[in-house]
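To assess whether ligand presence alters the predicted conformation, the chain was also submitted together with NAP. Input:
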Amino acid sequence: MIPMRNVLIIGSGCAGNTAAIYTARANLKPLVVSGHDAGGQLSLTTLVENFPGFPEGINGPTLVENIKQQAQNFGAEYLHGAVLDADFSARPFRLNVEGEWIETRTVIIASGASARWLGLPSEQKLIGHGVSSCATCDGFFYRGKKIMVIGGGDSAMEEAHFLTRFGSEVTLVHRREEFRASKIVLDRARQNPKIKFLLNTVVEEVKDVEKNLVTGVRLRDVKTGKVWEQDVDGFFLAIGHIPNTAVFRGQIETDPDGYIVSQGGARTNISGVFHAGDVQDRVYRQAITAAGAGCMAAIEVERYLEAEGH
Ligand code: NAP
């Protein structure tokens, strides 16, 4: 049986690891449950050029590992595995980590949101090698190159528009004719001469797994059945994100899509349970904003425990 913790942090991306640094430095001996996909979204990127402090940029997995090291240097402990169940009905809170129940006075949920992928084997193999789910992070690498964006919502329109700053051409591929995107965002994309729309079209394969690099795609028109190939250098998914809150459902207040509803600062609807990062943020989703949110949650935990005399 693991002794009762002051704070248990769920997630080891930028938000969770930063919360670990702050709570460790406050002598709260945090336990971080790192999750099955340790490192969060940063572990899926290559070069990160917009995290302040790294003029030459830094590799995504290196950045997140460095933040973890920093937390461990101050005494944060890490437990590999996932939270399978949670009981927030009474204090101390109880969390089931890979079959073992752990008690804790406070919790920081920093379990992130996972990008939705098409699920094609070729797409999965080329993540970080031309396949990306973050235009803000990776657009810069496709200066003068051919870019493809998948999706028909606001994110797809905004990302396609943003990517025209870099790409020689941007093709937006959407599986039907109607869009979820709001009119204003859609109109702006339509008026952009660098964006070409391919509607009623789905991606069958991303090429070229053999070269470990995106060189093109095989597409299919769902109405006519026509199949063809198109050269592409950068392949961006913008088909939504899924917040990792399924295990807390019914206990933590979320919006209809599953994002935690903030009660101000880093507070959730349960006193003593805090949020940090993409699990609550559907707007900014950046490494630096997640790190900032981790810091906020840690400071709130510190004050909360202090007020209780711990
Ligand atoms: P979204 O609105 O859920 O749109 C997802 C898009 O991806 C839809 O067009 C959907 O197609 C498509 N899609 C989903 N799964 C697919 C699959 N397997 N294969 C092919 N296409 C697939 O997601 P979002 O654009 O990320 O937006 C999420 C929320 O954030 C929305 O509420 C949006 O308004 C908001 N947001 C707002 C702004 C803004 O206001 N500036 C910017 C970004 C996001 P179907 O339409 O056919 O289902």
